Amino acid sequence: MSTVLYEPKGAVVRITLNRPQAMNAFDLPTARELGRRLEEFDRDDALRVAIVTGAGDKAFCAGADLKQMHGGSHAGGIGELWGSEIQYRLGQRLQVAKPVIAAINGYCLAGGLELALGCDIRIASETASFGCPEVRWAILHGFGAMRLPTTVPMSVAMEMLLTGERIDAARAREIGLVSRVVPPAQLLSTAEQIAEKIGQNGPLAIKITKELAWRSLHQHPDDALRFYGAVTALIHQTEDAKEGPRAFAEKRTPRFKGK
After folding, report:
1. How many beta carbons lie within 10 A of that of residue 123, not counting itself?
2. What are the DSSP E strand ranges found in the chain?
3. From 33, 39, 80, 114, active-site residue
4. Which CATH number is 4-199 given?
5. Cα–Cα distance between 26 and 213 in angstroms, integer?
6. How far apart, in whole angstroms, are the C-alpha atoms of residue 62 and residue 65?
7. Contact 91, 143 (CB under 8 A)
8. Number of other residues whose CB lies within 10 A of the CB of residue 142
9. φ and ψ at 121, to 5 degrees?
10. In a 3-state reduction of DSSP, which class is residue 204?
C-alpha cells in the first residue's frame, strides 16, 4: 500500500501520509512521494485546494523516521530524508501556487511541524500536539526555525525551538499556530468545508492572493506593492475578473474558468 494516499473529490484533493505504524513519520520514499503528489496537485487545473493529513488518529506526522537515521540510511543529509521535493514545494521557494490546508490529527512534531508550517491554513484536532524536539537529539529544526518566528511571537517560537517541549492544541490556537481547534470527529469535515468555500472563489485571484500574502513576509513593502500593481493589471484582463462583477450585478453564482 502506498505511504501517501491521493484522493481527489471534485475540486479538492485529500493527501494522506499513510504510515500510521510509524506515526506517519517520513522515510525517503514517503518524502519523495509527497513532493510528487503536491506537484501533481499544483498542475491539475481541475483541483483548487489540497488537504494534507495523517492516517489514523494518533499522528499528523512525527517528522523524520529517526530509526532510519540511526540505522545509517540518512547518509545524504537532511535533504535526503526531508526530501528536496517537499522543501521546494512547501518551503522557502513557495512553489505550490494553490491553497494547502493542514488537518492536524495528533502528533505534529519536527518535520511534521515544518510540513504544517508550509501549509496556508492549519486546523487542529483537540488531541493534537506540536513540538520541535530536534535539539534534544542534536539535530536541527531547519525550515521550521525560519518559519515559526514569522507565525507566532518570537519569544514563544524560541521557547518551542530551544526547549524541544510540546504544546497542546489549545495553546497552539492561543498563539496563532493554528486557526481552529475542533473535536477529532469534525477535523476533516471542517477542513473540507473551508476547502469548498475557497474552491468557490476565483482560482486566479486565490493564487495571486496567496502569493501576495507570502511575499509580504519576505519582500520589502515597495517591492511587494510593485508586484501587486503588475498582477492587478494582468488579472483585470482575465475572463474571471469580468465574470465576477457581472455575476454580482446579475445576482447569480459566478462561473469561474480560471482564465
Report:
1. 25
2. 4-9, 12-17, 49-54, 59-61, 100-104, 107-109, 121-125, 129-131, 167-168, 180-182
3. 114
4. 3.90.226.10
5. 28
6. 8
7. yes
8. 15
9. -130, 135
10. helix
Active site residue 174: no
Letter for the amino acid at 57? D
Neighbours of 208 (CB within 10 A): 18
| Residue length of the chain | 259
> Nearest to residue 61, comparing CAs of 111, 2, 15, 21?
111
**C-alpha grid cell, residue 59:** 499522528
Is 126 tagged catalytic? Answer: no
Q: Kindly give, in sequence order, each residue whose CB lies less than 8 Å from that of residue 101, ignoring residues fewer than 6 positions away.
A: 49, 50, 51, 52, 119, 120, 121, 122, 123, 191, 194, 195
Whether 238 and 222 have beta carbons less than 8 Å apart is answered as: no
In tens, the pLDDT along 161-206 reads 999 999 999 999 999 999 999 999 999 999 999 999 999 998 888 9
C-alpha angle 158/161/164, rounded to 5°? 130
Beta carbons within 10 angstroms of residue 38's beta carbon: 26
Distance between CA 67 and CA 72 in Å, rounded? 9
Q: Is the dihedral of CA 66, 69, 70, 73 positive or negative?
A: positive
- Count of C-beta atoms within a 10 Å radius of residue 96: 21
Whether 195 contacts 15, CB under 8 Å: no
**DSSP 8-state symbol, 82:** I
CB 247 within 8 A of CB 253: yes
**Which entry of 33, 39, 126, 134 is annotated as an active-site residue?**
134
d(CA 251, CA 203) in angstroms, rounded, equals 20
Confidence at 244, pLDDT banded by 50, 70, 90: confident
Chain position carrying cell 514563544: 156
86 compared with 92, residue with greater pLDDT: 86
